Amino acid sequence: MSAAAELESGLVVASFGRHCMVESPEGKRTLCHPRGKKSQVVVGDQVQWLPSTDEGTVEKVDPRRNLLYRQDEIRTKEFAANLDQVLILIAAEPEFSEHQLTRALIACEAAKITPIIALNKSDLVEPFELAWSRLAPYRHMHYGVLPLCLRLSSDVDKAHLMKHLEGKTTLILGPSGSGKSTLINLLAPHARAQTNDISQALNSGKHTTTSTTLYWVGNDRKTALIDSPGFQEFGLHHIEPTGLASLMPDIAAHLGHCKFYNCTHLHEPGCGVIAAVKPQPSPDDICARRYKLYGQLFAELSAPPVY
Fold first, then answer.
1. Are residues 93 and 190 in the same domain?
2. 45 and 91 both lie in a single domain
3. Do 79 and 223 fall within a single domain?
4. Residue 73: predicted pLDDT
5. pLDDT computed for residue 194 by the predictor
6. Are 53 and 82 contained in the same domain?
């Protein structure tokens, strides 16, 4: 039998360093290693892999529907693929970063992945009202914004979330303190056990603390949550600076009203975007905070790469 005939199909459900966990269509999991030093697989990948005695080798990654990137101070890396949506979980306290939220939304727009914003801790009345008001520009852009109270989680919360998640693969993102672990434990209470299984396969738990992992909600394995530690600093360097405005819906609405066809919307006279920026915007205007973020990101994407 040829090597090609022995290849099996699988789904990457965890990734850490040079290892990944591949799940068969029947649900069996096998520790695998990508073929070659430069090849990279990410959680959500459909792969063709070759079994050996007790491990396997990923020989091929099937074509991806979409791909998200994260970055650190040194480089940009792929980290999740084939997503149906991204749930961005933020909280009334601690105060969320609009910069991080905007990066996540731009990454979703660029990859054509539906984002959902969930605001947790609705039981903290005053902080929640303040955070909800900060999200007004995003509601005006027709992003879904869900109020949650995971601290007092109940069957009502679970049913509310499942209406948006059922039958889909969802990446869950959230900064420390947002309630991401509570959300995952509410929907996938077996998640800790799955993480322990991965640790045992590696003979160590230390690798899993920085891993991206997929958890199934329910035994039918049709609804998946992908957890990645921390609130990823999304890599946006695959986006051209001149394409940034079209990925920010409030700014994109004013494109085509500029005096110059190659307007950067930063300083040019007769710019339709600049004219729409207001400190107290109506739904049809651009919030000054959002415009400032646009300028910061344009400068970042225009800077020469750091090697």
1. yes
2. no
3. yes
4. 59
5. 60
6. no
190 and 88, same domain (yes or no) = yes
pLDDT value of residue 13: 95
| Residue 12 CB contacts under 8 Å (≥ 6 apart), including other chains | 20, 21, 22, 23, 41, 42, 43, 44, 45, 46, 47, 58, 214
DSSP assignment string, 211-231: -EEEEEESTT--EEEEE-SS-
Predicted local distance difference test score (pLDDT) of residue 201: 62
The pLDDT value given to residue 2: 47
Distance, in Å, from the CA atom of 151 to the CA atom of 58, rounded to the nearest integer, reads 41
Q: What is the pLDDT of residues 98-109, one digit of tens each?
A: 999 999 999 999
Distances (CA, A) of 146 to 42, 105, 162, 217, 255: 28, 15, 12, 20, 29
121: phi > 0 → left, psi -120 to 50 → alpha, else beta; which? left
Q: Whole-prediction pTM value?
A: 0.89
Q: Are residues 154 and 99 in the same domain?
A: yes
Q: What is the pLDDT of residue 185?
A: 87
CATH number at residue 116: 3.40.50.300
Q: In this structure, is residue 174 part of a structural domain?
A: yes
Burial class for 249, CB neighbours closer than 10 Å (0-12, 13-18, 19+): middle
